[in-house]
Design a protein that fits this description.
Strand content: 5-15%
Oligomer: single chain
Structural class: alpha+beta
Strand order of the largest sheet: 1-2-3
Protein name: Helix-turn-helix domain-containing protein
Shape: extended
Pfam families: HTH_animal (PF26215)
């Protein structure tokens, strides 16, 4: 093992010693049989396995629930080497299914069907030639609304067989979004405090505009363009007042070292960046004032060519190097 680990520093081999004549590898447990002088295999599940599946009471298509049981049955048929291990695994599948409120008859039906298919596949040799299906397959997604979905599927299939018999439509059902999607778990972030944004700044006194992007908080980038630091103070105070009104927030405990720590900022670099900004230069040359509140898409740079933009290419623009037609983009002036 030490010799193998010397081949490359990024490759490390490990080993595991069998315990009670058993050795696990991935989802397979290899058992040393002392009676038959051979190895047996069965399913292995980690101690952290919880046994949770798609609940029988969940609002999803029946195919999803069937697939949960079918996958476990197929794995048992492929891995278990003896009928005794296969029986034990089927009992474990029944236990897991009942834990998730699956009917026992539903589980036994799937086990019986898959077991029959496995036996026919193993003991029956088919010599008939395979006939290829010349039908063109297309896949159609249908929203899942229980019986209504089944009715719509049957009607579409009936019309297809009459109008396009050479077409084979495969339907798959999409369950609706969970109720969690309709509840907001986190507090909304104020627009100027968001990061990884595309921002659009328009002059209030002329038609000049500027579009850019930043990975940092938008307020930091706008301050570098020359936005007054008090421009968003009112919004920050409003959010702070709401927090103080709605909850009793206690001040965080901090050590004296953190409380007495001073923050050093390089104001010279900030001043240089502000002076070089094309927006600042525009304000100085014309005496105009910018509107610091609007955000738009970066593809607008290609379509509208703002006068204050010195660069026209950025990472998002590489996806559409030629831009998009104006008809597909919102007008930033509206």
């Amino acid at each position: 093992l030490s010799i193998l680990n010397e081949f490359h520093p990024s490759i490390k081999f490990t080993r595991k010693i069998e315990d009670n004549d058993k050795l696990e590898f991935l989802d397979v447990q290899v058992i040393r049989s002392s009676e038959q002088q051979c190895f047996e295999t069965t399913i292995y599940r980690k101690p952290t396995f919880t046994g949770l599946l798609t609940s029988w009471n969940s609002y999803v298509p029946i195919q999803y629930k069937k697939a949960s049981i079918v996958s476990m049955v197929n794995r048992a048929l492929n891995i278990c080497s003896t009928y005794k291990h296969l029986e034990d695994e089927f009992n474990e599948i029944r236990r897991i299914g009942l834990l998730n409120n699956y009917p026992l008859s539903f589980i036994d039906t799937i086990i019986g069907i898959k077991l029959s298919q496995h036996r026919n596949k193993t003991f029956t040799k088919i010599d008939t030639p395979i006939i290829e299906n010349d039908k063109k397959k297309i896949y159609v997604e249908i929203p899942f609304i229980q019986s209504s979905t089944i009715g719509l599927k049957n009607k579409i299939k009936h019309l297809t067989n009459k109008l396009k018999p050479d077409l084979d439509i495969q339907f798959f059902f999409k369950p609706p979004s969970s109720t969690q999607a309709f509840f907001q778990n986190k507090d909304p972030i104020v627009k100027h405090m968001k990061s990884d944004v595309v921002y659009y700044v328009k002059c209030n006194d002329c038609t000049h505009s500027y579009i850019g992007k930043t990975e940092r908080q938008c307020i930091r980038r706008l301050n570098e363009h020359g936005a007054p630091k008090t421009a968003y103070q009112q919004q920050c105070n409003h959010v702070s007042d709401d927090l103080n009104h709605n909850s009793n927030i206690q001040e965080l405990r901090r050590s004296s070292r953190i409380r007495n720590k001073t923050t050093i900022t390089n104001d010279n670099n900030s001043d240089n960046m502000i002076a070089k900004s094309s927006i600042t230069q525009h304000e100085k040359e014309t005496g105009h004032h910018m509107d610091w509140s609007n955000f738009q898409e970066s593809l607008l740079i290609k379509a509208y060519e703002p006068e204050l933009n010195k660069t026209t290419h950025s990472v998002p623009l590489l996806v559409f190097p030629d831009g998009l037609p104006r008809v597909l983009l919102p007008n930033p002036d509206l």
